[in-house]
Design goal:
Strand 3 and strand 4 form a beta hairpin. With 129 residues, this protein is an alpha+beta fold. 42% of the residues lie in helices and 31% in strands. It has a four-stranded antiparallel β-sheet, covered by helices on one side.
C-alpha cells in the first residue's frame, strides 16, 4: 500500500497556532500601553518642573548679581505651564553681606513632595554686571 503525502500548503493546525501566538503578542502589547502613557505623563511633568526650577534659580542669581536681590516667598505661588499647574516657593537668605543662599521648591498635583534645589550666589564689589 502506497501513501500519498501532500506537503504543498499549511495545515489548519499550523494556522490556528500562528493566529493564537499573534493574538497573545498583540494582547501583551496592548496591556502595556496604559503603563507607557502613565510613564510618559510623569516624565513630562518632571521635565516641566525641572525647567521651572532652573529658570527660577537663574532668575534669582541674575537679580542678585545685578544688585536687585528678590524677596523670599514664604508661601507657594501657582504657575501654569501648558495644561498643568505647579506650585513654586523661593526662599532667599543672606548669611553674610556678599553671599546669598536661594532655595527653590517646585511641586505639582501628582507629586506633592516635588523637587528642590539651591544655589549660592556671591557678589564681589567691583565686578558688577
Amino acid at each position: 500500500m502506497k501513501m500519498i503525502f501532500n506537503n504543498k500548503g499549511i495545515t489548519i493546525v499550523e494556522s490556528l497556532i500562528a493566529i493564537f501566538l499573534t493574538a497573545v503578542a498583540v494582547v501583551s502589547l496592548i496591556s502595556m500601553q496604559p503603563l507607557s502613557w502613565q510613564s510618559a505623563g510623569r516624565a513630562d511633568s518632571l521635565s516641566r518642573a525641572v525647567g521651572l526650577l532652573q529658570q527660577e534659580l537663574e532668575s534669582v542669581e541674575l537679580n542678585i548679581l545685578t544688585g536687585n536681590p528678590p524677596a523670599s516667598d514664604d508661601h507657594f505661588v501657582d504657575i501654569v505651564i501648558g495644561n498643568q499647574t505647579f506650585e513654586k516657593r523661593t526662599t532667599i537668605s543672606q548669611p553674610s553681606t556678599t553671599i546669598w543662599l536661594a532655595h527653590v521648591h517646585v511641586r505639582w498635583r501628582t507629586n506633592p513632595k516635588g523637587i528642590r534645589s539651591s544655589i549660592i550666589v556671591s557678589r564681589q564689589p567691583g565686578f558688577d554686571i
